[in-house]
Amino acid sequence: MNKNNSGKLTFTILSISLLTVMAGAAIAPALGIIRDHFADAPDMLVQLIVSLPALFIIVTNLLFPWLCSLMKTRTLALAGLLLYVVAGVGCFFVDNIWILLAMRALLGVSVGLIMPLSTGLLSYYFPPEKQADLMGLAAAMNQMGGVVATLLAGLLANISWNYAFLVYLLGLIAVVLVLLYLPNERLKGGSGPSLSLLKKFHPSVAGMFLVMILFFIYPTRFAISAHAGTALSNNTITLIMVGLDVVAFLVGLVFGKMMRGFRHGMKYLAPTGFVIGYLFLSKGSTLPLLLTGSAFIGIANGIGVPYLNTIASMKAGKEAASTVMPLLSAALYLGQFLSPLIITPLGALCFGPSDILAPFKAGVLIGILYLLQAFMTRKNQVVE
Question: In this predicted structure, what is the pLDDT of residue 285?
Fold first, then answer.
C-alpha cells in the first residue's frame, strides 16, 4: 500500500470512528425539548430515545463475526452507514414515539455493524508499530464526533425538536469515503462469541466495561449536580461538559507518543484519572472542583479506550475485527447502558439516597476496583 493510499484509507476508517459516539450522545442536548413535545408519553419512553440504541448495538456486535462470513468489508460498512443515515435522519420525519423508538433501534443495529470496523480495520490494514497512534486517533475522532454532534444537535433543536436528528446526515461523508477508498476484502469470519475467546481477551473486555461504567457517571449526573450546587448557567455547564470531550480528543492525539514513552505505566493512568476526577467532583460543586474533576475524567477516558483497543488488537492481529473488537464494542455499550443502573443504587446504599454527590463517590469506589483489575490482569501485558 503506497503512502497516498494509506492516508486515504486511514482517513476513511477514522471517518467511521467519528460517527459511532453519536448513537445516543448526539440527541442528549435535545432530550428536554423532545420530552416537552411528547408530554403525554411516559418518561421512560423518552429516556429510551437515548439508551435504546445501546441494546441493539450489543446484539449486533455479538452477531458481527457471523456477518463477516457473509459480507466483505466495503459491503458491510456501506450497509451499516446507509442504515445509519436512514434510521438517524428518518426520525426527523416521524411524530409517533413508538415509530421513533423503532428507528432508534435500527440506528443501534447500524452502529453495531460499523463499530467493530472502526477499530478492527486499523489492525487489519496497518502493522503493530502503527496501531497505538492509530487507536489514539480513532479515540480522538470519536471524541470530536461527540463535540460536533452535541453542539450541532443543540443548535438544531432550537429550531424544532425533530431538527436535532438531521445531525445524522454527517454519515454521508463516510459513505462517500468508503465507496471511494475502502477495499472490498473478506475478513475471516467466526461463529461468534465463545468462552474461549472471552477467556483470552477478558482483561480488555472487563476493562472496557469498567471504563464505560465510570465514564457514563459523568454525562448522566454532572449537569444535575452542577445545577443543584452552583449558580452556573446552562450554557456554562454545557461548555464544561464539551470541554471534557476536547480534553479527551487532545489526549487521543498524543496517545501513541504516550504509549512509546510511558508504556509500562499506561495501564494505570485511566483508572487513576477516574479516581482523582471523581474525588474532586465528590467534594462539592464549586467551579474549580468541577473544572479539575472534568479534566481528569477527560484524560482518563482519552487514555482508557484506545489503550484497551490497542493491546487487544495487537494480541488478536489481523483477525481483531471479527474476534475481539465486537466483544470490546459490546462491553463498551453494555457499560453505557448499565452505568446508571449500577451507580445510582450503589451510591444510595453507601452514601445515602439524599446525597446528590453520591454517584461521584460511587465512581471513586468503582475506579479503585478498575485500578485493582488493571494490576491483577495486566502484569505481563505490556505493549512493546
Answer: 82
